[in-house]
Every structure is written in structure tokens, then in C-alpha cells.
Amino acid sequence: AKKDGRGCYRFFSPEMDTDVRLQRAFELQLREALPRREFELHYQPIVDLATCRPCAVEALVRWRHPEHGLIPPDKFIPVAEEIGLIIPLGEWILATACRAAADWPSDIRLAVNLSAKQVVAGDLVEVVRRALADTGLPAGRLELEITESVLLQKDHDSLAVLHGLAALGVHVVLDDFGTGYSSLSYLQLFPFSKIKIDRTFVAELTTRADCAAIVSSVTTLARALAMGTTAEGVETWDQVALLRVAGCREAQGWLFGRPVPAAALSFEPAADCAP
Ligand code: C2E
Ligand code: CA
Ligand code: CA
Ligand code: CA
């Protein structure tokens, strides 16, 4: 038994001991992954729903672990945030993605995910400014995706940071819309140029009338606020048809392309863009 901070006794079983040791080993390997160049970015197209032509590409990080193979971001980003690694990792992601995007056709934008920890770190605007200057990527071609968790950071002026980013000329995008608890007033308060509709709504679009109603309401609201909309997780043409009716502008999902390494990225329109 071990005494914890509040003077209570907590019992550690041998399995919990092993769990803690595994967790520490995982953190150590994660810290070493950056200098060992084990992270890689995969890229997924975002298409214009009118033409099915790619208009942007989202960078998605993966960890190529020497023993366990490719590890998805959901498995290590939360740990990277806990141990502070997300700051240097986030800078690497931004610089690497901007360097790749500088070679793409000039009408293709780059979308990069930001952790809430990067927004509160203090020098995000300078980090972004430097990534653009170093790679020559025009600010207008960069979209920074943040989730509602950023808006809920108490005691921090996230609003000023997001305005600083917008002042650079980059687009600030609200990711995973509909999954959190933030109020609609945030849409008015923060300088978003686009809303990404979470794939949980898209997944049920063809089977649940309430999901279709939510998607229509979000696109209508976005249009009224002069913001764009991207539907995430689009896997079928039936979903595309309903998204077009709802007035959604852009879509991303396996139907149009899975995330792939930079060298495998194609900017060709989807072969079968059902009208
Ligand atoms: P997200 O930003 O919502 O990214 C979209 C996720 O949906 C990606 O998962 C993508 O592979 C997956 N996806 C795309 N199309 C489809 C589809 O048609 N069907 C289904 N079922 N899934 C689809 P991924 O790459 O595993 O990333 C998961 C999350 O990890 C991301 O969610 C994002 O929150 C985070 N993440 C990824 N890369 C980064 C990064 O560079 N920095 C930070 N801070 N977070 C990242
Ligand atoms: Ca995203
Ligand atoms: Ca998302
Ligand atoms: Ca997500």
C-alpha cells in the first residue's frame, strides 16, 4: 500500500505496477522518437463537392515504431501532450507539412492539426510565421485545425492567439464540430473561416433524419457567418448526395482517398464524381 497526496491509502496490484512501468517505457520511447526521426506525415485529400477535385490536403501524423509498426495518432498524441513533447513535435509537423505543401499546385491548401497545448504555449504565432517564412508557403494556403478544447482553456487568452494567427493570413478551422460542449456563441467570437462537421454526423446521415437535419443546420449557420464547411469521414456516394443537398462545400473521407505518404499523393479529381 502507498500513501497518496491526500493521506489516503491506495493499493497497487502487481499488474498496476507493470502498467506503470510500461507507461514509463512508452514515454521514453516517444521522447526518443523525434531525434530518431520515427514520426512521419500522411496526407489525405479534401475535395470540393461540386467538382470532386482536391482543394486541400490534411497532414496526419503517425509514429513508425521500430518494433510495433505504424502507430496511429490517437495512441500517442495524448501522451505527447502530457509529457510536453507536443511542442517540439508540433513544430516538426508544421515545418515538415509546409515544406511538402510548397511543392504542390498553388490552388491546393494545407491543413495542419494543432493541439490545445500548442495554442497556450505562448509562441505559436511566431512558430507559424517562421514555418511559412522558411518554406515560402503563402499564409493563405495554410489552414490550422483546432478543436473546441482550445476554446475552453480557462485563464488563457486563446482568442488573442487565434486572432494573431488570422492576422498572419492563415485560416483557422474549427475541427470535430458537434462533438464538444462549446456554445454557438464561440462561432461568432472566434475568427474561424471554416467548420469541419464531425464524422459521427456523416456516418448516420443516410440512416437518421436528425443527423441530416443537424448537418443542414450547421451548413446554413456557417453560410450566414461567411464560413465554409467540410464534412469528415465521407465513405459513400449516398452521403455525398445528401451533403450536396445540405449545402456542404467540401468533403474528406475514404471515398476520395485514404491518408497516404507524400510521395503517393494525387491531385486528380475522383474518377466518378456523381453529379
Ligand atoms: P482528425 O483531425 O479528426 O482527423 C481525421 C481522422 O479521421 C484521421 O484519423 C483520418 O485518418 C480519419 N478518417 C479520414 N477519412 C475517414 C473515413 O472516411 N472514415 C473513417 N472511419 N475515418 C476517416 P487519424 O489519422 O487516425 O487521426 C486521428 C486524430 O489524431 C485526428 O483527428 C487528430 O485529432 C489527431 N491528429 C492527427 N494528426 C495530428 C497532428 O499532426 N497533430 C495533432 N495535434 N493531432 C493530430
Ligand atoms: Ca483534423
Ligand atoms: Ca476532425
Ligand atoms: Ca478527431
UniProtKB/TrEMBL annotation:
Coiled coil: none annotated. Residues 23-273 form the EAL domain. It comes from the Bacteria. This is Diguanylate cyclase. It comes from Rhodoplanes elegans. The lineage of its organism: Bacteria, Pseudomonadati, Pseudomonadota, Alphaproteobacteria, Hyphomicrobiales. The chain holds residues 268 to 542 of 545 of the full protein.
